[in-house]
């Protein structure tokens, strides 16, 4: 279909903010030193990775922190450090991204998906049922697109059922539930510093926990070559007594260059979060004005990081949803739809993860069929955000007129 539109947005949905000047200076200094490996230190030197770990732990409010190569590697290491082994069932949300079931499969365990609700959160009634149906002892909860479920109720349920909770906080770095940081509820949490998340080192991951034995296992798993005494936010060496012989080296260390880039970003993260949330609420309010669009409820207990936005088109069939994609694309808007039959970009659904057994998820499928998703990079101004919301409303009206 050929489109002529009156107004068009010209910003780039994949353009993140540039790095702070200090990050560039710190990176150059690491490059000039030639010492990029985290353990390649001069005597008495702490190193960028150990400093990042100490600073991240302080900000997150966890006892320990370990930096690794990616969010996906953090998930694999966290599961192994929790004791997940070959053939174990790991429950996770049916609405998530491919690295989550991917990490579960990579450690030899079996992903089993739990339904979500219309507001994109884990369905706790379905979780309870699946724990009792499968006898699973692990839940990898993916706080997908920043929508936290009732974390107090979740922990009560899982603690009562003897289920260990691993939190995937790739979309909730800095978010909280009832004043408690996301990541501080379960046994261990994983964060990503990949370009499209809340801090940008290209690739990278962070793992936090309060459990000394767990972080000792994770550190050996990350490939510490027994140099764990050089870590910035780990337990005392005695805690490694068992782990050092029993954990395989999976070579997933973070390097000094990435850590150097991340530290100045961490120092500014509260400002970034506020900037994301202002953009989110402008788009959200704009979309709420359309009679066709259902925006996602945000519970009072949740304080999110609005780096992306989702909405539903409840009265639209698949063909109308496809026409919405075309109508917004003509207006320069990069909207993703989770209802497509083929995986496109980052939007794959469970039907495309064919390395795992087929899953029966009628509630989730009904939500994904009408679910749209869009990034809100900080390179967009607040005026850009208002325009984007107007253009989406206009496109949706056009399809239904
Ligand atoms: C990005 C992402 C990950 C994995 O992070 P990488 O650093 O890309 O490996 C895990 N879970 C979710 C929900 C993500 O979006």
List the helices and strands and how they pair.
Blueprint: H1 21-33, H2 48-60, E1 64-68, H3 71-82, E2 89-93, H4 99-106, E3 110-114, H5 124-134, E4 138-142, H6 151-161, E5 164-168, E6 176-177, E7 180-181, E8 188-192, E9 205-209, H7 212-222, H8 243-246, H9 256-267, H10 269-288, E10 294-295, E11 302-303, E12 308-312, H11 318-330, E13 336-337, H12 362-368, E14 371-375, H13 382-400
Parallel strand pairs: 2-3, 2-4, 4-5, 5-8
Antiparallel strand pairs: 1-9, 6-7, 6-11, 8-9, 10-12, 12-14, 13-14
Pyridoxal-5'-phosphate (PLP) binds next to helix 3 and helix 4.
Task: Characterise the protein shown here.
There is one protein chain. Helix 6 (151-161) links the parallel strand 4 and strand 5. Helices cover 38% and strands 14% of the residues. It has two domains: 21-267, 3-Layer(aba) Sandwich (Aspartate Aminotransferase, domain 2); 269-400, Aspartate Aminotransferase, domain 1, CATH 3.90.1150.10. It starts with 20 loop residues before the first helix and ends with a helix. The protein is α/β, with parallel strands linked by helices and 401 residues long. The longest helix has 20 residues, at 269-288. The mean pLDDT is 96. It is globular and about 70 Å long. It has 13 helices and 14 strands. It has a seven-stranded mixed sheet with strand order 1-9-8-5-4-2-3, with helices on both faces. A four-stranded antiparallel sheet has the order 10-12-14-13. The structure holds pyridoxal-5'-phosphate. Pyridoxal-5'-phosphate (PLP) binds at residues 70-72, 96-97, 99-100, 142, 144, 168, 170-171, 192, 194, 205.
């Amino acid at each position: 279909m050929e489109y002529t539109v009156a107004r068009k947005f010209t910003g780039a949905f994949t353009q993140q903010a540039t790095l702070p000047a200090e990050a560039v200076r710190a990176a150059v200094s690491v490059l000039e030193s030639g010492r990029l490996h985290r353990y390649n230190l001069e005597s008495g030197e702490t190193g960028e990775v150990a400093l990042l770990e100490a600073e991240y732990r302080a900000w997150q409010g966890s006892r320990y922190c370990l930096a690794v190569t990616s969010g996906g590697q953090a998930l694999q290491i966290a599961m192994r450090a929790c004791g997940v082994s070959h053939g174990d069932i790991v429950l996770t949300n049916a609405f998530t991204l491919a690295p989550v079931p991917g990490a579960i499969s990579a450690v030899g365990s079996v992903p089993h998906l739990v339904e979500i609700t219309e507001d994109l959160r884990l369905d706790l009634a379905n979780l309870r049922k699946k724990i009792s149906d499968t006898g699973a002892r692990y839940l990898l909860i993916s706080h997908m697109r920043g929508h936290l479920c009732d974390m107090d109720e979740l922990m009560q349920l899982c603690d009562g059922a003897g289920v260990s909770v691993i939190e995937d906080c790739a979309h909730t770095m800095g978010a909280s539930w009832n004043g408690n940081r996301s990541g501080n509820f379960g046994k261990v949490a994983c964060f990503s510093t990949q370009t499209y998340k809340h801090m940008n080192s290209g690739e990278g991951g962070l793992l936090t926990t309060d459990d000394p034995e767990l972080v000792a296992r994770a550190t050996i798993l990350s490939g510490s070559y027994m140099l764990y005494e050089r870590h910035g936010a780990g337990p005392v060496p005695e805690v490694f007594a068992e782990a050092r012989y029993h954990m395989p080296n999976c070579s997933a260390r973070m390097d000094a260059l990435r850590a150097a880039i991340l530290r100045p970003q961490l120092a500014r993260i509260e400002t970034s979060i506020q900037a994301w949330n202002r953009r989110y609420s402008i788009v959200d309010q704009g979309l709420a004005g359309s009679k066709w669009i259902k925006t996602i409820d945000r519970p009072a207990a949740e304080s999110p990081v609005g780096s992306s936005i989702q909405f539903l088109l409840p009265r639209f069939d698949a063909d109308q949803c496809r026409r919405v994609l075309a109508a917004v694309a003509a207006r320069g808007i990069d909207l993703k739809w989770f209802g497509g039959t083929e995986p496109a970009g980052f939007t794959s659904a469970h039907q495309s993860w064919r390395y795992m057994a087929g899953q029966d998820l009628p509630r989730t499928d009904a939500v994904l069929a009408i679910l749209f998703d869009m990034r809100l990079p900080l390179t967009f101004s607040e005026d850009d955000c208002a325009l984007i919301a107007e253009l989406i409303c206009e496109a949706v009206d056009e399809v239904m007129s």
